[in-house]
Amino acid sequence: MGELANIFIKSAFIENLALAYFLGMCSFLAVSKSVKTAFGLGLAVIFVLGITMPINWMIETYLLSENGVFSTDLTFLRFILFIAVIASMVQLVEMVVEKMSPALYNSLGIFLPLITVNCAILGGSLFMVSKEYNFGESVAFGLGGGFGWFVAIVAIAAIREKIKYSNVPPAMRGLGMAFLLTGMMGMAFMGLMGIDFVNF
Amino acid sequence: MAETQVLVKKVATPISFGKKERALITDPLNDNNPITVQVLGICSALAVTTGMKNAAVMAVAVVFVCVGSNVITSALRKAIPSQVRMIVQLVIIATLVTVVELTLKAYAFESYKQLSVFIGLIITNCIVMGRLEAFAMANRPYESALDGLGNGIGYGIILLIVAFFRELLGKGELFGMKLIGAGDIYAINTETSDIFGWYVSNGLMVQFPSAMFVIAVLIWAHRAWNPKLVDIS
Amino acid sequence: MHSTRSIVIFVLIMTTVVSLLLAFLSSAWAERSKDNALLYAKKATLGAVSQHLEMDYASINNEQVSDIFKNQVEQKVLRMDGTALTKEEVEELGYTGGQAENVDILKEMKKPEAERVLPLFIYKKKSGDKFYILSAAGKGLWDVIWGCVALESDLRTLAGVSFDHAAETPGLGAEIKDNKTWVKQFTGTKIYDEQGNYTSVYVRKGGAKDPDYEVDGISGATITANGVSEMLKRGLKYYEPYLKSI
After folding, report:
1. ipTM (interface pTM)
2. pLDDT tens digits, one per residue of A12-23
3. In whole angstroms, what is the distance from residue A105 CA to residue C170 CA?
4. How far apart are CA A28 and CA A174, in angstroms?
5. Is the distance from CB of B41 to CB of B155 less than 8 angstroms?
6. Considering only CB atoms, which chain B residues are within 8 Å of C25?
7. Judging by DSSP bridges, how do beta strands C117-124 and C130-139 pair with one another?
8. What is the pTM for the complete model shown?
9. Cβ B109–C10 below 8 Å, yes or no?
10. Is B91–C220 a contact, with Cβ atoms under 8 angstroms apart?
C-alpha cells in the first residue's frame, strides 16, 4: 500500500506530467486563461487518466504481449488500440459532463474532445508500459498523474489571471509569458527531485 | 452569362504551383507557425530538442506523418462516415506513426532508443490532428499535401532552432560534435581533454524548463519582428 | 449521413488494411530490429574495453562490432556458484540463442538471488591480453541502471566501464552514460585490495579519497551515484566464485 501511495505522490508532484515532462502542453497553455475552465479541464483529465490507464494496462498485458491471449508479439498495434480506448473514454466523459453540468460542457467547448489528443493521456499510458507497472501501480500512476496535471493547470491559470494586470512587453503578452511562467514552475518542481516516501 | 460563369467555376481546377500553393507552404513558416502562433505541437518540441540530431529525426518524422495523413484523409474525405470521423483520423495517424516507429527500429536504432516514448506521441501532436480537421477534410489531396509539408517544415524549423541553442549552450556540441569547451561541471577534478577548454556547459539547458525559456524568447523575437502577431494568443 | 451498413463496411475495410499493413511491416523487419537491439547491447558491452579496441570506439560501426564478437569474444553464462551453463540450459530459461548476449540482466535481477544467471564476456585482444567483462544492474534515482565492467587479466584492476540507464535526468544522473571524462576515472581502479579483500569501487560525493578504490561523484546526482556504487558492490561480488576458479 505504501508503494502505491509512493507512486501516487511521485507521479503527482515529483514526476509531474505537465511540469516535469511537459506533456499536455497544448491544452495546458490554451485553456489556462481562466481558473474556472482550467479547473473543469483538470478534473476531466484526472478522470480520463484514471480510467484509461488500467484499461490500457489490461490491453497491453493480456492482448499485445507475448504472454497474452494470442501468444505472439502484437505490440505494433499498441498505438492504435491505446488511442482508440482513449478516444472512446473521452466520448464517454463528454456525454457524462453534458448530462451532469451543461454549463461546464459549454465553457469547455472544443477542449473536451481535445483531451483525446492531449499528449499527457497517451504519454501516461506509454510511460506505464515502459516502467512495467502492475495493475495497482497503473491505477495509482493514472490518478496521481491526473491529479498533478490538475494542480499544475489550476496554478498557472491563477498566475495568468493575475499577470494580465501587469505591464508585460507587447510581444511577450499572452503566449510568450505563459511559456516563461511554465518554465519557471518547472524549475520550481525540479526542487522536489529525489523525495522518496518509502525509503524515507 | 452568370450561368456559364458558375458552370466554369465547377470545372476541376488544375494542379498547379502558383501563388496560392506557395502560400500553403510559406504561411506556416511565419505568419501561421504551428508552434509560435497556433500553439500546437509543443510537447515534443520540448522533449526532443536536447540535441540537433534528435530534433532533425523528429522533424522528418512529423513531416512524413503530417503529409501522409493529410493526403490519405483528403483522399478519403468523402467516404469517411461522419459519425466515426475522429476515430478514423486517429487510426490513420496512429498507423503512420507505427510505420515510422518500425522504420526507426529497423534502420536507425540509436535514434529509436533516444526518442523512445516521443515517437508515439506524434499521434497526439496537435499539429497533425489540427491540420486534418482544419484543412484536409475540406480540400483536395494535392493542396493537403502542400499544407502538411508547410506545417511540418514550420514545426521542424522551430525544433531545430531550439535544439541549436540547447545543445550548443548545454553541451557545447552540435549534432554530437564537440565545438566549444570540455568543462563537464558535474565531475570534480576533471582532466579537460579538448582544445577549447574555456566553456563550462550550462547544465540547465539540457533540462526541460530551458526549452520553455528558449521558446518564450523565440516567441518574443518572432512577434517583435512580425507585429501583426502581437496578442494573437 | 451515412447508413449504419456503410459505416460498418468502412470500418471493417479500414481495420483489415491497417492490420495487414502493420503486421507485414512488423514481421518483415522483425529480424532486423532484433539484430539492431542485440548490436546496441553488444556495442555497450564493448564500451567497457573501449580503450583496448583496435579501432576508435566512438566511430565503430555495426559490422566491426559483430566481427569482434564473432572472432575475439568468448561468451559464458554463469550460475551464482561460478559454474557455467550449457547453451541448451540457457535457452531453457527463455533466452533464444543460448549465449551471454541473449541474457537479459534486468530480467535476472527480478529473480531471487540464488536463481540468477550471469552473463560473462571474455574479450581477447590480438596481442593476446584477456579482459573479463562482467555485467551488473541496480537502481538509480528514477528507474533501473545497468552496466558492464571490464577486468584485466589480474582479475583485480578495471580496464574500463560502460553504464546505461532507463530514465535518469539528462545532465545529472544520465552523466553516468554521457560523461566520458567521469567514466574514464574507473580505468585503473581495483576491486580487491593488496590483501585480497573485496573492496569494489566506491563513488564518493565530494571527491575520491583513495584513487585506487574510489572515483569522484557527480554534482547533483548523488542518488544515481550511490546507485552505481551499490550496483557494483553487489553485482561484481556475484562473479567471485567464478573469478576464484580461474
Report:
1. 0.78
2. 888 888 888 888
3. 40
4. 13
5. yes
6. 99, 102
7. antiparallel
8. 0.79
9. no
10. no
